[in-house]
Amino acid sequence: MPNEHKSDEKERQVVVSVRLPSQLLDRIQAIAAVQSTSANAVIREGMDTFVRERVASAEFRAASEAYIAKAQAQVATALQEHSAASPA
Fold first, then answer.
1. CA distances in angstroms from 14 to 2, 30, 67, listed in the order given
2. Under a CB-based contact definition with an 8 Å cutoff, are residues 71 and 63 in contact?
């Protein structure tokens, strides 16, 4: 059963091209070598940690609430304009 989950996880992976400064890539490759893993694994782990921390932050929560409020206001405006333009 654990192998099934692992293969499902691999199927959902996509290739992404990212530009990194050469010094950062050198550091990532050094970490990978010391930990006997791949640079991809180091980058994935780092990005996972970054995203989890960012999403958990109060700043992100406030920004996402502001984004949602703005989107809701835009949709409400569009619906009002549509209602005003439609014959009753």
1. 21, 24, 27
2. no
Model pLDDT, residue 8: 62
Q: Which helix (H) or strand (E) holds 51?
A: helix 39-56
Q: Quote the pTM value.
A: 0.65
State the CB neighbour count (10 A cutoff) for residue 74.
10
User: 17-33: per-residue pLDDT in tens?
Assistant: 999 999 999 999 999 99
Question: What single-letter DSSP state applies at residue 12?
Answer: T
Angle between the N-to-C axes of helices 39-56 and 22-34, in degrees from 0 to 180, rounded to the nearest 10: 110
Alpha carbon of 65 to those of 3, 15, 55, 59, 69: distances in Å? Answer: 39, 30, 12, 10, 6
Q: How far apart are the first and last CA of the chain?
A: 59
> What is the rounded distance in angstroms from the CA atom of residue 19 to the CA atom of residue 40?
13
